[in-house]
Amino acid sequence: MAKSLLCSSALNSFFSPTLSSSNSSKNNQIACSGNIKTQTPSLSWNRRELSLGFMSTFLAVGLVGNNDRRSRDANAAILEADDDEELLEKVKQDRKKRIERQAVLNSAVKEKGYLQDLVYNLSKVGQAIENNDLPAAGLVLGNGSDTEWVKTANLAFTKLSASPEENTEVETFNSSLASLVTSVNKNDLESSKLAFVSSASAFEKWSSLTGLLGQLKGI
C-alpha cells in the first residue's frame, strides 16, 4: 500500500510539470489565437478604410472634372450667346444701312439722270473707237473733266458714293477717262481701247457697289 502511494506520488510529481507545461502551452495558444482573432478585424477595418478613401478620392476627382466641364460648357454658352447677339446686331445695322441707302437712291432722280447721260456718251465713245473713228470719239469726250456730262456725272458720284471702295472706283474711272482723252487726242488707237475698257469697267463696278447696276440702262 505504501509502495503504491509512493508510486502514485512519484507519478504525480513526474507528470505535474508536464501537465503544467502543456496547460501553459495551451493557454499560450489560446492567447495567441485570441490575439490573432482580435487583430484580424483591425486589418479588415483598415482595408475598408483604404477602399473608402480611394473611392472618395475618385468620386472627388470625378466631381471636380464634371464641375470643370460644366463650367467650360457654361462659359462657352455665354460666349456663344454674346456672339449671337453681336451677329444679330450687325445684321440689324446692315439692314438699316441698306434701307437708308435705298431711300437715298430712290430720291436721287436727278443724279440718276446724270449717270444715264454718262452711260449714253460712253457708249458713243466706245462705238467710235470700235469703228476706228477717234475724231468722233474726241468730239464726245471734249476736254474730259471740263465736259458737261463728265462734270454732272462726278456730282452724282459725290452724292451717291458711301464707301471707300466706291470712292476708289470713282478715282479709277476719272483717271482712266483722262488717259482716254489723252490717247484719243494723240490718235493712239490701242491705248484708247485700253483706256476705254478701264474707265467702263470702273463705272460698272461702282454701279454694282452702289446698287445702281440694274437701274441704269445700257450697263
TrEMBL record:
GO BP, sorted A to Z: photosystem II repair
Taxonomic source organism: Brassica carinata
Domain Maintenance of Photosystem II under High light 2 C-terminal: from-to ranges: 114-219
Identification of the protein by name: Maintenance of Photosystem II under High light 2 C-terminal domain-containing protein
